[in-house]
Write a structure and sequence with these properties.
By secondary structure, the protein is mostly helical. The protein is built from 5 helices and 2 strands. The protein is about 50% helix and about 5% strand. It is globular and about 35 Å long. The two termini are about 25 Å apart.
C-alpha cells in the first residue's frame, strides 16, 4: 500500500514515536499490537504545517486505517468527536496555513523525543 510513497527519515521516526506514545493501540477499536499499528494523518502530505502534529495524527490498526481512508466523512465525524468542535476547527486553521517544514530542525526535535521515549 505504501510502496509508492516516499517517506523521509523524519516521517519514519515520527511514526515510531507516535505509535509508542499511543501505546501501540488502535484509537478506534482499541486493538493493541506493537508491530501492526499505522499512523494516519487526518490532513495529508500537502499540509506540511501539521505533518508532525500529534492532533493531526491518529494510531490505527490496518483495518481501521483502511476504513477511514475509504470513508473520509466518517473519519471527520470521529475526529470532531475525539477532539471537540473548537480544537477541530483550530487544527483545520493550522492545516491550511502556508509553510514548509524544516526537516533538519524536525530531525533534531524528533531524535531528542525518541531518546526520551527510549526508541533510539
Amino acid at each position: 500500500m505504501w510502496g509508492t510513497i516516499k517517506r523521509r527519515s523524519t516521517d519514519i521516526l515520527y511514526s515510531k514515536i507516535l505509535r509508542k506514545k499511543r501505546n501501540y493501540t488502535c484509537e478506534r477499536c482499541l486493538k493493541r499490537e506493537e508491530g501492526g499499528m499505522q499512523v494516519s494523518h487526518f490532513y495529508g502530505r500537502k499540509a506540511e504545517t501539521v505533518r508532525f502534529d500529534d492532533e493531526n495524527c491518529d494510531c490505527f490498526c490496518a483495518g481501521c486505517h483502511k476504513y477511514f481512508t475509504e470513508m473520509p466523512a466518517l473519519y471527520a465525524e470521529w475526529k470532531k468527536k475525539k477532539m471537540g468542535e473548537k480544537a477541530y476547527k483550530i487544527l483545520m486553521l493550522r492545516a491550511h496555513q502556508m509553510g514548509k517544514r524544516d526537516d533538519k530542525l524536525m530531525g533534531i526535535i524528533l531524535k531528542k523525543e525518541a531518546k526520551e521515549l527510549k526508541i533510539i
